[in-house]
Each structure stands twice: as C-alpha cells, then as structure tokens.
Design goal:
Elements lengths: L9 H6 L9 E2 L5 E2 L2 E7 L7 E8 L4 E2 L2 E2 L4 E14 L5 E4 L3 E4 L5 E5 L5 E8 L7 E2 L5 H5 L3
Length: 146
C-alpha cells in the first residue's frame, strides 16, 4: 500500500469518505435542509429493537425539527455542528461530543455554517416508534444564538 503525504483539509477528508464507513445515501429533502447522507449500520429488527447509523452533513445542512419516542444518542465523530432542543439555547457540537436526546423531546441537529459534521446515531427501543418529523428549522432559527 502506498500512502500519500499530500495534506488535505478536514472537510476534504470527510467528503472523500476518509472514514471507516461509506458516505451512504442522500437523505430525503422533505426532512432536511441542505445536503446530508445517511448510512444505516444496524437496521431495525425485532431482536435488537435499535437503529444505528452515520449521517454526514455538508456545511449548513441540518435536520428538520423532530422527536424520537424512545430518544436518541448522537456521537459526533468529525467536524462541527449544533444541537438544539426547542425552547432552549443552541449547543455547539464538536468531534468527541455525545448528546442524549430525551424521549419525545423536539430537537434538531446538523453542521455549522462553515464546517461539515459526521455523527453516529443510536435510536433505541424502536418498538415504540422511530422518528416523528416536523417542520424545517428556519434560517433565522439556525443562525440565532438561542
């Protein structure tokens, strides 16, 4: 194996899938703003009752407001982004951060305006449901400090 010594930016590495998982499939535009890709790693079934996967968000990309009947865990594996629970201040997310989204709590997450972000997600107890999609996060909400 020949290794290249060419330096590349964090964004270039993420876009080129310099990751242990592939980029996945482009997500449905009705549930996201901007471009994001999802790779399901553990599909839902009746044995484990969990979905696990990876989402890559291009800069500025984000989910709509949504909730999970049994909550969700996010593991930030690269880049920079945000998470916000409705009515609370937006939180900065960076590589290594872990977020526990409580059950039935409306929230959104996605990349910062200037940097891409990759996250792993775990949705437990899927027998209770997986996700309830709501309206898009407006540009004003995305850009606000709260």
């Amino acid at each position: 194996m020949i290794l290249s010594l060419t330096a590349c930016s964090n964004r270039e590495k993420m876009e080129n899938n310099d990751s242990i998982f592939t980029k996945g499939d482009l997500v449905p535009a009705e549930n996201f703003t901007g471009s994001a890709w999802n790779k399901v790693l553990v599909a839902n079934d009746t044995v484990y009752n969990v979905i696990t996967g990876k989402v890559y968000f291009e800069p500025g990309a984000r989910t709509n407001w949504h909730s999970h009947p049994s909550g969700q865990i996010l593991l930030i594996i690269d880049g920079e982004g945000f998470h916000q629970i409705r009515g609370e201040a937006k939180q900065l997310l960076e590589k290594g951060d872990v977020v526990k989204c409580p059950p039935n709590v409306t929230h959104w997450h996605g990349a910062s305006a200037s940097k891409a972000m990759s996250q792993m997600y775990i949705v437990p107890n899927t027998e209770n449901g997986i996700v309830n999609w709501m309206e898009p996060v407006s540009d004003e909400q995305y850009q606000s400090e709260n």
